[in-house]
Write a structure and sequence with these properties.
- By secondary structure, the chain is of the alpha+beta class.
- The longest helix is centred in the C-terminal third of the chain and has 11 residues.
- It is elongated and about 60 Å long.
- The relative contact order is 0.12.
Length: 78
């Protein structure tokens, strides 16, 4: 986790917030001591109708072929 001083936050607040919006977690420090954390917010939940519409466009899954592919990539004893 990156550290950002209060001074940097004050002088470059927009840039610091942009970093958090892109997924970076930042610790805000005062006199070198951590005092707060700035982190990105979670995404808004996707509405069910959108999830179902996207699912309709996925290709069908063949369970036997999927198992074969996984066994090829992973230890079959798992």
């Amino acid at each position: 986790m990156s550290e950002v001083s209060i001074r940097e936050l004050r002088n470059h607040g927009g840039d610091v917030v942009d970093r958090a919006a892109k997924g970076e977690r930042l610790t805000i420090t005062r006199s070198g001591k951590p005092v707060a954390e700035l982190r990105p917010l979670g995404r808004e939940p996707m509405p069910l109708d959108v999830v179902l519409a996207r699912r309709r466009h996925l290709p069908p899954v063949d369970p036997d072929r999927l198992r074969h592919d996984l066994d090829r990539l992973l230890d079959p004893a798992l």
